[in-house]
Amino acid sequence: MSRHRRQRFQSVDIWPAFVDVLSTLLIITIFALLVFILSQFVLGRTLSSRDETIEKLNARTQQLSELLALEQAEKSRLELSLATLEGSLTQARDEAEAGAEARAKVPELSLQIEQLTRQLAALQEALEASETRSREQEVAIEVFRAQLNAALAEKVQELRAYRSEFFGRLRALLGERDDIRVVGDRFVFQSEVLFPTGSATLEPEGEATLGAIAETLLALSAEIPKDLDWILRVDGHTDKRPISTAQFHSNWELSSARAISVVNFLIDRGVPAERLVAAGFGSGHPLDTGDTDEALTRNRRIELKLDQR
């Protein structure tokens, strides 16, 4: 019997069972794969739907942002309009208040205008009176100017007469000399008559000549009216040759020193100092522009001119 069992056991076949197991595993694997594929498909659809939803939400957000910006701009415009209206309202209120104040001040302003009108009329009358006085004063000034010019012309004529008298007396006193002559309204002495060459010290002959001139001038001054304010101008001139000595560095210094020497001598002889004027011109005012000895001699001179102060 034991032998029979051993034979029976050895004849059992396990392959079908193995195939069944493999089939079962295959089915399970296929099922799992299908489940995975389905889950991936569902997940893909879900993700795609989510992206579309997100895009829609983004678009909506953009629209809302644009609407918000428009609303903010509209709000700003409305706020500006409101501020403008408030300003206009305030201005209108101020103008209304000012108008009320102005209306209240109308009587006072009318009174002020009336007063100013009266003042303006008074000023106009004063201005017209002032213009009349001004015209009268202008006429008086013109009359006075004419009288003054006539008086000055008369004094000038008087002075010319006394100048002619003075020159006539000098001419009679000094005689006809080539080195003493009348040039225009001046009595001209050649420098050699009064001074050595290059010196401002009077020579004895020059002192004698000037002494006679002083006596003639004093005699004539006694006849000149007190209201005729006269002076005797003493002008020194040199030739154009330059000079440079220890005492004089230029012709201007020499001509000035000679004019001063003549004035000092006349003062010593009694001529009032306030009636004398000394001036040096150097070589700047020649009588002769030539270069000859005669021209240079003519230009070295002392001129006396009886003039009005």
Concise structural overview:
A 5-stranded mixed β-sheet has the order 1-2-5-3-4. With 309 residues, it is an alpha+beta fold. 70% of the residues lie in helices and 10% in strands.
Number of helices: 6
CATH topology of one domain: 60s Ribosomal Protein L30, Chain: A
- What is the string of SSEs from the N terminus onward? HHEEHHEHEHE
Mean pLDDT: 80
Percent range for β-strand residues: 5-15%
Proportion of helical residues: 55-70%
Q: What is the distance, rounded to the nearest whole angstrom, between the alpha carbons of the first and last residues?
A: 193 Å
| Structural class based on helices, strands and sheet pairing | alpha+beta
Our Rg estimate from Cα atoms comes to 67 Å
- Architecture of one domain, CATH level 2? 2-Layer Sandwich
For the largest beta sheet, what order do the strands appear in spatially?
Answer: 1-2-5-3-4
Tell me the name of the CATH class of one domain. Answer: Alpha Beta
Write up what this structure looks like:
It is a single chain. The protein is α+β, with helices and mostly antiparallel strands. The protein has a domain at 177-308: 60s Ribosomal Protein L30, Chain: A (2-Layer Sandwich), CATH 3.30.1330.60. It has six helices and five strands. The protein has helices at residues 2-10, 15-174, 191-194, 204-221, 251-268, 293-299; strands spanning 180-183, 186-190, 230-237, 276-280, 301-308. A five-stranded mixed beta sheet has the order 1-2-5-3-4. Strand 1 and strand 2 (186-190) form a beta hairpin. Helix 2 crosses helix 4 (204-221).
